[in-house]
Amino acid sequence: MTSNKQNLKKKNRTKFIDALTDYDLEISSNSISEKSREFCLSDGRSYFKTQINYRPLDHEPLFHFPMLFNKEGSPWYEGNQFLLSIALDHSFEYTPLKIARKASALLDYQMWCEENDVQMFNYSARRPKNRPSYRYFSYLLNEGKSAGNLNTRTKLVYDFTCYFSSKYQIDKDRIDKVTDVQKNYSSKTGETYKKKLKKRSQTKARNNSKPSVDDSLVLDDGEYLKPLGEDQQKILFKHIKSSSFNVDERQIFQFAVDTGARKQSILTLRLKHLEHFKPENLKTDGTYEINAGQGCLMDSKNSKNITIKVPSYLAENLKIYANSKAAKKRRKLFIQKYGNIFTDPNEIYVFLGKRGDCRYMAKSDPRFSSTRTPPSGGSIQTIVNRLFKVLEKENEGNHIPSDFTFHWLRATFAYNLYLHLLPLVDAKKMTYSDQIAFIQNALGHDDPSTTENYLKLFTSENVLEEMQETWEERLFQKSAFDLV
After folding, report:
1. pLDDT of residue 310 exceeding 50
2. Is this structure's pTM higher than 0.85?
């Protein structure tokens, strides 16, 4: 079956409930008790809801909850009940996108069973290879699925089958062979410890060998980045500051290169943060500190709590932009579209698109849980693409690597910071360990080895000596944007 046909069939067999409030109901194609109530769909099909009395008193709706259907059009009881159990599990961080992915993978398994005449709850076969989960595992291997993709799918099938093992009298040991293993881990302080884990046999080994990459790249939390040198920064900023780009786009790039913040933090900056930019809050190093992560208005990677140091000159630029006609117009469009959704009006985003939409939806945004696909900064890539077009037009495309991404500005910030600290280390006013700790704190790294990866890269560069004077005494006093 071609992927287009497969996707069309899946689409016809998946419906999304805008807001599922009836947590305490079982959905089925037939009446299962005297409490069952029939409901009709717009296409003439019907289903039954049955009260089972376990809804929490303080529950909130499950937005865009996926409902799966059998081939003949009836609701798939087992699939829907399992998805509901996942959604109500406190360990599962429910978002419409996450539950939709699980629903899609589960429906793939059901459709594979139908196409191959496999009874998904029949585990009576003596040989494991003839049982449904093992056959599906073999199929995924032959399809060439990546280790991550395959393991996620087989884990879902295992959990799904185990969920109904009592109902269908299935011995869990027949679904997959699970063994106890111990794995060694290292703590932030360098201490090693062991952790007991469950290992399934229906998995594919991941390739943990380090890929062959350019020596000029640094690994930062799973992403390969490269700092831009001084000449590259000059060219980049020259064009970003040109009429080809809007003021807010320049501010976004400047925020990244002058703070090292990631896009999810920059794009969830709020007017309320700008209220903090007052003389009494200014630190001795010339910066204001704002918090991001869990429980904060500003997002961070993996909701980790971090502190971002915003130089005073950048803070002033942000306030000027926020008070501009263009920014006020975008906020007005936002309110016209969505109303006053924030308890505090100043929780509105600083960086909004031309149509008044947020560029990145924060997890604290009241709309987040009800939005099927929240904006996640895709507009930044559009800006980068436009940058390359401008560079090509000006015959300067060869000066910026073709694989440049916005996130490279984080590595560029670290590079500039390193160059600022280098004279202090050379003069023995700062130790190497102090230097690592300073950069580690600025970038929010958990593991100092990640920061050391940066330093290994920087010390291998041949341009340090000639660049060193450029950066002395400029940290937090002057923007890298002022190179041009």
Report:
1. yes
2. no
Confidence of residue 462 (pLDDT cuts 50, 70, 90): very low
Is residue 379 predicted with pLDDT exceeding 60? yes
- pLDDT of 54: 56
Contact between 36 and 75 (Cβ < 8 Å)? no
Q: CA 334 to CA 16: how far, in whole Å?
A: 26
Distance, CA of 433 to CA of 439 (rounded, Å) = 10
360: Cβ contacts below 8 Å, ≥ 6 apart: 263, 264, 267, 268, 299, 375, 376, 377
Question: Residue 99: what pLDDT?
Answer: 94
Least reliable range by pLDDT among 17-31, 394-408, 460-474: 460-474
CB 41 within 8 A of CB 96: no
Instruction: For Cα atoms 258, 259, 264, give the angle at the middle one, nearest 5 degrees.
Output: 120
Average of pLDDT values for 197-221?
73
Sole residue written with tokens 């998904």: 120
Place of tokens 């490279």: 408
Among candidates 357, 312, 235, which has minimal Cα distance to 479?
312
Residues sharing a CB contact under 8 Å with residue 115, sequence separation 6 or more, in sequence order: 1
Cβ count near 315 (within 10 Å)? 21
377 phi-psi bin (left φ>0, alpha ψ -120 to 50, beta other): left
- Between CA 197 and CA 178 the distance in angstroms is 10
The pLDDT value recorded for residue 95 is 87
Q: Could you tell me if 137 and 202 are in contact, meaning their C-beta atoms sit under 8 angstroms apart?
A: yes
In 3D space, the residue among 262, 309, 274 whose CA is nearest the CA of residue 288 turns out to be 309
CA distance 75 to 79: 9
What pLDDT is attached to residue 67? 94
First vs last C-alpha separation in the chain = 56
Strand partners, 219: 224
User: Could you give the CA distance from residue 149 to residue 159 in angstroms, rounded to a whole number?
Assistant: 16
Q: CA nearest 292: which of 318, 314, 273?
A: 273
Tell which residue, 469, 452, 448, 464, has the closest CA to residue 186.
448
Query: Please, are residues 342 and 366 in contact by the beta-carbon 8 Å criterion?
Result: yes
Give the Å distances, CA to CA, from 171 to 36, 78, 174.
31, 18, 6
Closest of 386, 407, 439, 444 to residue 264, by C-alpha? 407
Confidence of residue 419 (pLDDT cuts 50, 70, 90): confident
Averaged pLDDT, 253-282:
95
Residue 32: CA count within 13 A, CB half-sphere: 12
Query: In the beta sheet, which residues pair with residue 183?
Result: 195
The Cβ-side half-sphere exposure at 466, using a 13 Å CA radius, reads 6
Angle (CA) 328 252 468, round 5°:
145
CA distance 89 to 86: 5
